[in-house]
């Protein structure tokens, strides 16, 4: 039995979508409600989910004038490699839930846009197959109870051509996502976490009233005792660059860098873990201040336009991760739909740079901001 309803047939004219709000509204009509809730929902009362947008909307750029460039340069380098945009396609689980092309389609669209794609550990397509058509690939890791399986996956990723590892550190267990609980959400029979065991996949497909099957299977797979010593172990096992995702306290960013992290992602997991956790954008300046210039600082959480990305750059970020909008585009048109989302962000970022007097991303980092974004974070030692 399939636990989610089939999507209604909806014709989508990608050319008639002019911003990510258009993409979202159209995708909501296309995606079955339980799947939409799984994608869009947060944990608890979804306060952190809402706050991600609230803080971005409360901060305003101070543009410069008479310094415009006819064609602003959106290129930069991430982990030493050139990218066309200061964007990273975030790791998102089970992408075949919304389109048969799944992670393969997303990887191809990211390659065409010139941005990295982080293959999710809970991918519905094997990393080797994704790598066949993708460009710059990195692999996301959750920390598994089965250290042997984790080691095997790290080795597989390197053999497939993944250039870095992104370790998600804010999921000792999955947050209580009430939409999924109320929907008794489970994966359909043809979608699973192919990098894990058959038992894991079956657990995620087993529907139980009043429970999230996805939360149940991750609880049996993820190691709740994950700590900093695990990061040390990973550093000793691989020579791939390591990115630590899920940092909010500057002290944790400093620890991550001291243990060999090349970059940190300031993130509250899209409001899907601790409800009440501060938005990553709010603490971005404090994290940037705490680590060395050698450590890149990226951010995610609610970014929906090129102006949002420019705000991140002006606040100290090297790049922003884009999550849910990629799934919206995937649902609407597979590779073409994801390409549409990334094209919109590119066009909006170019426009925002030109209108703020920035010829490139270095100039963007010097823009002023006004609003409620704190410049320092009070910390209790």
UniProtKB/TrEMBL annotation:
This is 2-hydroxy-acid oxidase. Its cofactor is FMN. Belongs to the FMN-dependent alpha-hydroxy acid dehydrogenase family. Glyoxylate binds at residues 142, 177, 269, 272. Residues 12-374 form the FMN hydroxy acid dehydrogenase domain. The active site is at 269 (proton acceptor). FMN binds at residues 91-93, 140, 168, 245, 267, 300-304, 323-324. Keywords: Flavoprotein, FMN, Oxidoreductase. InterPro entries: Aldolase_TIM, Alpha-hydoxy_acid_DH_FMN, FMN-dep_DH, FMN_HAD, FMN_hydac_DH_AS. GO terms for molecular function: FMN binding; oxidoreductase activity, acting on CH-OH group of donors. CDD domains: alpha_hydroxyacid_oxid_FMN. It comes from Streptomyces yokosukanensis. It holds the Pfam family FMN_dh. The keyword Flavoprotein applies.
């Amino acid at each position: 039995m399939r636990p989610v309803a089939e999507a209604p047939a909806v014709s989508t004219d990608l050319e008639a979508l002019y911003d990510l709000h258009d993409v979202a509204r159209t995708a909501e009509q296309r995606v079955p409600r339980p799947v939409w809730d799984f994608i869009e929902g947060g944990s608890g009362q979804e306060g952190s989910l809402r706050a991600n947008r609230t803080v971005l909307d409360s901060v305003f750029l101070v543009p410069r004038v008479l310094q415009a460039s006819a064609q602003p340069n959106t290129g930069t380098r991430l982990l030493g490699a050139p990218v066309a945009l200061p964007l990273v396609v975030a790791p998102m689980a089970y992408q075949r839930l919304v389109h048969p092309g799944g992670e393969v389609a997303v990887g191809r669209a990211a390659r065409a846009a010139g941005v990295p794609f982080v293959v999710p550990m809970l991918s519905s397509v094997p990393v080797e197959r994704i790598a066949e058509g993708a460009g710059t690939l990195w692999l996301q890791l959750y920390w598994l109870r089965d250290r042997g399986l984790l080691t095997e996956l790290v080795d597989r990723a390197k053999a497939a051509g993944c250039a870095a590892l992104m370790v998600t550190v804010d999921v000792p267990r999955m947050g209580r996502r009430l939409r999924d609980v109320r929907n008794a959400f489970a994966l359909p029979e043809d979608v699973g976490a192919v990098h894990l065991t058959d038992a894991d996949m079956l657990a995620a497909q087993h529907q139980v009233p009043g429970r999230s099957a996805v939360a149940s299977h991750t609880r049996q797979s993820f190691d709740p005792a994950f700590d900093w010593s695990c990061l040390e172990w990973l550093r000793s096992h691989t020579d791939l660059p390591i990115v630590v995702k899920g940092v909010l306290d500057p002290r944790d960013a400093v620890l991550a860098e001291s243990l060999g992290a090349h970059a940190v992602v300031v993130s509250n997991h899209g409001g899907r873990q601790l409800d009440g956790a501060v938005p990553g954008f709010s603490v971005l300046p404090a994290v940037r201040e705490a680590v060395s210039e050698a450590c890149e600082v990226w951010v995610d959480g609610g970014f929906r336009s090129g102006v949002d990305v420019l705000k991140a750059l002006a606040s100290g970020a090297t790049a922003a991760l884009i999550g849910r909008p990629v799934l919206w585009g995937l649902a609407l048109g597979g590779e073409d739909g994801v390409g549409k989302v990334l094209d919109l962000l590119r066009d909006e970022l170019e426009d925002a740079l030109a209108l703020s007097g920035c010829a490139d991303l270095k100039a963007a980092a010097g823009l002023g901001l006004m609003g409620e974004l704190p410049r320092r974070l009070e910390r209790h030692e």
